[in-house]
Predict the 3D structure of the following.
Amino acid sequence: MTGDLVGRTAIVTGGAQGIGEGAARALHAEGAAVVIADVRTAEGNNLAATLGERARFVELDVRDAKAWSHVVAEAQSAYGRVDVLVNSAGIAPVAPFAEYREEAFRQVLDVNVMGLFHGITAVAPEMRRVGGGSIINIGSIGGFRAFPLMTGYVTSKWAVRGFTNAAALELGADGIRVNAIHPGQINTPMTDGADFDTAHVALKRVGQPADIAGAVLFLASDSSRFITGEDLVVDGGDLAGTANWTSVPDQNGRSGD
């Protein structure tokens, strides 16, 4: 522990398990006070109890703007400020496009996109008050390439990229940085039972929440103080291995047989 985040307060949505839990643990280990926000009350309370001092759980459905106000108020009351927001809450229903229903599609957008909107709207005034902050949106490599059977999820993660860039431009003058982390294949409760394919992944393995947590710490800290509006892909080289050459260029740059 280097203590880079001592004196700062982070809100982590989806913080009760998976990537969010990994982020909450890492931020706490670096000295930050952590507000774990999730709909999973048992898991969230257990994690807060495990972390102990400088950690608390607040129930949050990210789709509820009023609930967001409560979370920010709790963070201010307990720790006096909000410096970091990690928007990790998300859902990923699987269904063929022909069977995808409007209600399910809207639910994905409400959680994965409107959740970001409500979160940033809620924390921005407090971050302005303390002189700035870091907002970290958890996207996906699904925001760079499509996955079958996940129309809503892929749509939402492409939206995360645009949302991140637009928010960064508007909030930069207030010292608020907004960046996105795009995980590849990560072993979490949400991906339990998934048929991982690492054949084209450069590092030849599935990632763990701790692999994403390191990127969260970087973007939360002053080490990234001049970085905003960026897409940080953390996928073990997954996207790097997706090129599908139909022919191989020769040494002169021409297409060979």
